[in-house]
Amino acid sequence: MRIGIAFDIDGVLIKGKKVVPSALRALKRVTDERVPFVLLTNGGGTTEAAKAAELSRLLGAKIGAAQMVLAHSPMAPLAEKYSRSDSDAVLILGKDGCKDAAISYGFKHPILTEEILATCPEIWPFRAPLEGYKPIADMNRRIGAIFSFHDSKDWGRDIQIVCDLLRTNGDLNQIVDPSHHSHRVRHTLTLQQQYARPQLPIYFSNGDFVWSNNLPLTRFAQGSFRVALEGVYQRLSGGKKLEYIMYGKPYKSTYDFARLAIDAHAAELSLQENEENETMRSQRRYYGIGDNPESDIEGANRNGWTSVLVKTGVYEGGPHHAKHLVQDVEEAVDIILKDTVL
Q1: Are strands 324-326 and 306-310 parallel, antiparallel or unpaired?
Q2: How many CB atoms lie within 10 A of CB 291?
Q3: How far, rounded to the nearest angstrom, does the alpha carbon of residue 249 sit from its chain's CA centroid?
């Protein structure tokens, strides 16, 4: 039976900024055994190549960019719609590296929320724009979609700007031009009309509510930001629910993407004498190792993978639905290799 493994990163291989000691031994073992694997995370905020280089240094293992499945990696095919010079712009939520990732996928006109703040400081008047961000050059280009690639660095700024764009159907001029908000010139659409038209598409790269670092209590994650945005939007719109599309764990699109990445790594390792066919790929057993029952374990179970839950991250005990509950990632790898004949 051929196998493939998807390792979560935070809480499994890394804890805060420190490497989990057993992670070094676990990755060495799968490398020595020539087991195809990927790192499957609901994190991101950078390019796959940059993250692979960073983790290769930290973990002492050779990890290629194609083995990195970041939260926003499965969004790459969506860039085709926004890849032309005359395409709509897209708003990218997350840190600066998210824009680099968007460009690497083929998005032609990605814009960060801090660039909108640099264009119009009054849009979030509670702090000055950060240095190094330039105002947007082409204000006539509509925002056609909103992509949350990573955790928001400023919830207030991002919730305000996203709601402004939803109300104006992506019209940048309307949200930054003071004349649209003066007592002399009012919005051309009533509040009811603003929310009656089709909503701008919004894509979230992961739904994790919390994540784990070196502190004793969990930290809020992108899912928490989404819940906050939903609450504000529903109140602002008079009860209308925010529409959005989810990526990341536990969703099928992400596991389909990870499955293809594992199969590609298997081919790269030359585990087969000849090129794999569909029948051979269907015989592979896929394992997901993670610390979060709501994303890692739910995602593996929902998509037909074998789930392995470790105790080094957000899991704090109690009921779970993992196939295996283990102390750490080294024990997880040990169980997988004992459970399977390569």
Answers
A1: parallel
A2: 25
A3: 9
β-bridge mates for residue 204, sequence order: 148, 246
Dihedral pair phi/psi, residue 112, rounded to 5°? -90, 155
What type of residue is 152? S
Is residue 312 within 8 Å of residue 332, measured between CB atoms?
Answer: no
Angle at 286 between CA 282 and CA 288, to 5 degrees: 160
Please report, for residues 22, 114, 214, 268, 308, the alpha-carbon distance to residue 19 in angstroms, rounded to integers and kept in the order given. Answer: 8, 32, 11, 27, 19
* Helix/strand/coil for 220: strand
For residues 169-192, b (16+ Cβ closer than 10 Å) or e, as one string? bbbbebbbeeeeeeeeeeeeeeee
How remote is the C-alpha of 160 from its chain's centroid?
21
Please state the pTM of the whole predicted model. Answer: 0.88
Structure tokens at 290: 């993670």
Looking at the chain, list the stretches that DSSP marks H as alpha helix, in order from N- to C-terminal side: 21-32, 48-59, 97-105, 113-119, 155-168, 172-176, 191-196, 222-236, 252-268, 278-282, 298-302, 329-339
Let me know the angle formed at the C-alpha of 245 by 145 and 107, rounded to the nearest 5 degrees.
Answer: 35
Asked if 92 and 162 count as a contact pair (C-beta separation under 8 A), the reply is no
Query: Rounded to an integer, what distance in angstroms lies between the CA atom of residue 23 and that of residue 4?
Result: 17
Return d(Cα 278, Cα 322) in angstroms, integer.
28
Provide the residue-wise pLDDT of the chain in tens; the chain has 342 residues. Answer: 689 999 999 999 999 889 999 999 999 999 999 999 999 999 999 999 999 999 999 999 999 999 999 999 999 999 999 999 999 999 999 999 999 999 999 999 999 999 999 999 999 999 999 999 999 999 999 999 999 999 999 999 999 999 999 999 999 999 998 765 544 434 556 666 677 778 999 999 999 898 877 788 888 999 999 999 999 999 999 999 999 999 999 999 999 999 999 999 999 997 554 555 555 556 899 999 999 999 999 999 999 999 999 999 989 888 899 999 999 999 999 999 997 754
Q: Which two tokens stand for residue 254?
A: 């992400």
Residue of 124, 108, 110 whose CA lies nearest to 176: 124
